[in-house]
Automatic annotation (TrEMBL):
Any GO BP annotation: carbohydrate metabolic process
Region described as Disordered: spans on this chain: 22-43
InterPro entries on file: Glyco_hydro_28, PbH1, Pectin_lyas_fold, Pectin_lyase_fold/virulence
Similarity remark: Belongs to the glycosyl hydrolase 28 family.
Record key words, sorted: Cell wall, Cell wall biogenesis/degradation, Glycosidase, Hydrolase, Secreted
Organism: Dorcoceras hygrometricum
The protein's name: Polygalacturonase
Length: 439
């Protein structure tokens, strides 16, 4: 059956709807978060390693780093073990890595207490990329009702804290010292498989809250991530070189992208997300410094985005190569979002980006059942002259202004249907760029 699409674009209102469409589907009700796990495993046969038994004080003042390291050393040796961070205590932990690859599988990091980061410069040396890291592990789970608190305000609250901190000097600490210019990710997983993160809260990260790099089989659910809207570069969840990822029932409020998807990511499914404030859900920026980027098969559905600068965004640098393809955004409700729909192949985070010919190719991008309000413009599709965006599909898109009113913007974007903004349809599009990634 062929369904024809009827679309209109006035100076302030973008609507794309199925001509035969009935009532638009509402976003699914938010799934209840999984109940918090018990503070300690009830099965006495499970080998449990409580950090208090290794000398942790849990008073928020004494350094508990060595106790955490010692508990991990023992837990690492036992398959299916539990490393317990108990409730009722606050643990002061300096930068630490819980490392494999010689650890047993199916280890559980049971977080029911609170972990806080150092706020003095001495703990960070000349600068580190992460605070708490899990590396080269198989079937690792972090679960519980506990909190990871990066205490990032000492990094943000500096005259040097601009949006991208590209040329910053060190930030002031509370005691008058200087924090390194390199700000760490609060919680990072690297080179691991079958990773589960559920139930916990991550807040006030120094930079990104939760990062997965070179991981496969990732499950994230029932967690909360938060930092102030003006905290610079505090992405919620950052994915890089990771495949087969599921993120659902997550609340994200931060100072940058709620979810950031970078090169090397494929088969990512995101649903039942609440995002805002922040910069929305983003793919990119891809292709900086002439690099090749490959992203495919990304699905975002049944989610709410509110009070963010952008909503559903794909951003690439000029001069890059590779491709973004097979991206679907379905049943998304936006409220007070600056620009809900954005593809920007001219992304630049400074005033010094030179014009370049090559670009990361963008194709097969679908927007279905997107509704709500915007504050700047409903859509912005700025595509490369040499590598236009092809295969953009819009269905049941209804975006209305809440404050400022501007036309949607389109440049070298080929879409179905061709509305006033899209001057040419996908059937008129050139062949896919040679820079596209192989499947």
């Amino acid at each position: 059956m062929i369904i024809f699409l009827v679309c209109t674009a006035s100076w302030d209102h973008l609507i794309c709807a199925n001509a035969r469409s009935s009532k638009q589907k509402k976003p699914a009700k938010k799934s209840p978060q999984p109940p918090p796990p018990a503070s300690s495993p009830s099965n006495s046969s499970i080998a449990t390693f409580n950090v208090l038994n290794y000398g942790a004080q849990g008073n928020g003042i004494a350094d508990d780093t060595n106790a955490f390291a010692a508990a991990w050393t023992d837990a690492c040796k036992v398959q299916g073990s539990v490393m317990l961070v108990p409730s009722g205590s606050v643990f002061f932990v300096k930068p630490i890595s819980f490392s494999g690859p010689n650890c047993q599988s199916n280890i559980v990091f049971q977080l029911d207490g609170k972990i806080i980061a150092p706020t003095d410069s001495g703990a960070w040396g000349s600068g580190l990329l992460q605070w708490i890291q899990f590396t080269k592990l198989k079937s690792i789970t972090i679960r519980g009702k506990g909190i990871i608190d990066g205490q990032g305000s000492v990094w943000w609250n500096s005259k040097h804290s601009t949006e991208y901190l590209a040329a910053e000097t060190d930030a002031d600490t509370e005691s008058g010292g200087r924090m390194p210019s390199t700000r760490p990710t609060a919680l990072r997983f690297y080179g691991s498989s079958d990773v589960t993160v559920t139930g916990i809260t991550i807040q006030n990260s120094q930079q990104t809250h939760l990062k997965f790099d070179s991981c496969t089989g990732v499950q994230v659910s029932g967690i909360s991530i938060s930092s102030p809207a003006d905290s610079p570069n505090t992405d919620g969840i950052h994915l890089q070189n990771s495949q087969n990822v599921v993120i659902h029932a997550v609340s994200l409020a931060c100072g940058d992208d709620c979810i950031s998807i970078q090169t090397g990511c494929s088969n990512v499914n995101i649903y039942d997300i609440t995002c805002g404030p922040g910069h929305g859900i983003s793919i990119g920026g891809l292709g900086p410094d002439g690099t090749k980027a490959c992203v495919s098969n990304i699905n975002v559905r049944d989610s709410t985005i509110h009070n963010t600068s952008t909503g559903l965004r794909i951003k690439t640098w000029q001069g890059g190569s590779g491709s973004v393809k097979g991206v679907t955004f379905t049943n998304i409700e936006v409220s007070g979002v600056g620009t809900p729909l954005m593809i920007d192949q001219f992304y630049c985070n400074s005033n010094k980006c030179a014009n370049k010919t090559s670009a990361v190719a963008i194709s097969d991008i679908s927007y279905q059942s997107i509704k709500g309000t915007y504050t700047s413009r409903p859509a912005y599709f700025a595509c490369s002259d040499s590598t236009p965006c092809v295969g953009i599909k819009l269905s049941n898109v209804d975006l209305t202004p809440s404050l400022r009113r501007n036309d949607p913007f389109c440049w070298e974007a080929f879409a179905t249907p061709a509305i006033n903004c899209f001057t040419r349809t996908s059937s008129e599009a050139p062949n896919a760029s040679a820079s596209s990634c192989s499947t």
